[in-house]
Amino acid sequence: MQEPFKAIVVSRDENKKQSVAITELTNADLMEGDVVVEVEATTVNYKDGLAITGKGPVVRRWPMVPGIDAAGTVVSSTGSEFKAGDKVLLNGFGVGETHLGAYARYMQLSSDWLIPLPEGMSTHDTMAVGTAGYTAMLSVMALERHGITPASGPIAVTGANGGVGTVAIALLSKLGYEVIASTGRLGEADFLRSLGATEVIDRAELSEPGKPLGKERFAGGIDAVGSHTLANLLAQTRYGGVVAACGLAQGMDLPTTVAPFILRGVTLCGIDSVMAPKAVRIEAWRRIAKDLDMEKLKAISKTIGFEDIIGAATDILDGKIRGRVVVDMTIT
Questions:
Q1: How far apart are CA 230 and CA 286, in angstroms?
Q2: What pTM does this model have?
């Protein structure tokens, strides 16, 4: 690790103007942690796009290496949980926000943030899932925990062409749920049906200001959009239904009323993937390895090299990316 290695670094000048560049770091630049990991694969999430472009307040330490997901091999460890050669996986914990992230060849991290690579999955596979897909699994588990089964009725998935949406559709479909996919890209309807969506609707049906209560339509939902979309999803959820909220692509606001909660007993579950306890993360990834169709995962994802990350960050915010992006860190 004495040799310099490439990294993407975002910086700010004295006027708080952000810039991004590919540069070189050394092991002396790494942050505190009891495990050093060589990154083999990472991904580009919506949050990574915000960090690189500066279009959202993601980065809270400057300069910063973005990248909230990583999978790779332990190089060294001073703790007892992992040893050199172990394959490990990271999602969240402020990495790429307050702690140097995955868009570098090496990372130094707390072992508490890492879990062993799920059995039967490669580092590439886990990054095809990434935080987006892992969040989708947490959302599915929340629906199950609150008693929503395939017999309960249709499940709405908003932002259906995004990373959370595509994986959620594939998971729900394999588990036997009827899935209604909401998207702004109706030209992708056949693709969404190939993942398992039963019906595809225009996002305009949910994205405009609506009534406090609408027709009971969904038994539950997985929402990565927020704002009016989440408000309308709640208003159209059946009595006793459950909605898992995990994103804010439309906005952080929630212009709703208490009506769905006190008149229909609807439950709104918040999904946090960043600080989830280790036992929850391990269980979610076990379920992913068990319940996600790997052939569908291939259809959802594409692979790029390290040099393509910055361009992909812009594309994901512009809605030009379908599904998941895997970064092969050996491609430079």
A1: 29
A2: 0.94
